[in-house]
Amino acid sequence: MHRFSLMPDRMVMTYRDVSAAFLTELEIKLLFVDIDNTLAPYEQPEPDEHILNWVADLQGAGVEIVLVSNNNPERVERFNKDLGLKAYPKTGKPFSGDMKRHLKDSGLKPEQALVLGDQLITDAWAGHGLGIRTVIVPPIRDKRTWFFRFKRWLERPVIRRYMKEHPEYVYPFEQLKAAEGKQNAGVE
Ligand SMILES: [Mg+2]
C-alpha cells in the first residue's frame, strides 16, 4: 500500500550535509537523489566540482547513487554525463515505478535506502510511498510560477510542524529556520 506522508525524516541545509558519515550512521546503501533545486538550480546544466566530489565520496563509502528526476531526458542526460550514474528522467514522483523497481532489483530493504530532495509533495511522498526515509533540503532556487508557489504554500505548514516537533533532526536548525522564513516571504 502506498503510504502517504509528507513529513521528512531529516532536514538539512544542503545535499553536502548528507555525507558518507551521515549515511553510514543510518546504514544507507542506496541513495535516490533529485536534481533540480536539490543538487543544482534549474539553469545549471552540468554538475560542478562540489557535486562530483560529493558523489565520489559517497561511492567510496559503498553507497549507490541514483538520480530520480521529473525533468526531461535531455536535462537529466546532460547533467549525468560526467557523473555516469543510473538516472531516471520523467520518473513520475511521487508515483515512480522506476524507484520501486530499482529498489526491488537492488535486493536491499527500504530501510537501507534514502531519498534526498527539495519537495515534500514529490520527493518525500515518493520515498515514504516505498517505505524509504527522506531527507529534505531547502530549494536552491525556486521557479516563481503559480504552480510552484501553490506547492510551497501547501508544504509550509508541514515544514513548520516538523521543525517544531523534531528540532533534533533539523540541521543546522537556526540557519534552516531563517531559510524557511525567507522562502515563505517569497510565496506570499
Ligand atoms: Mg527538485
Number of strands: 7
Query: Span from first to last CA?
Result: 36 Å
Could you report the average pLDDT, rounded to the nearest whole number? 91
* CA radius of gyration: 15 Å
Shape: globular
Count of helix runs:
7
Q: What is CATH's topology name?
A: Rossmann fold
In the sheet with the most strands, the strands line up as 4-3-2-5-6-1-7
Order of helices and strands: EHEHEHEHEHEHEH
Structurally, the number of domains stands at 1
Written overview of the protein:
This protein has seven helices and seven strands, in the order βαβαβαβαβαβαβα. The mean pLDDT is 91. It has one domain (10-141): 3-Layer(aba) Sandwich (Rossmann fold). A seven-stranded parallel sheet has the order 4-3-2-5-6-1-7, with helices on both faces. With 188 residues, it is α/β, with parallel strands linked by helices. The protein is 43% helix and 14% strand. The structure holds magnesium ion (MG).
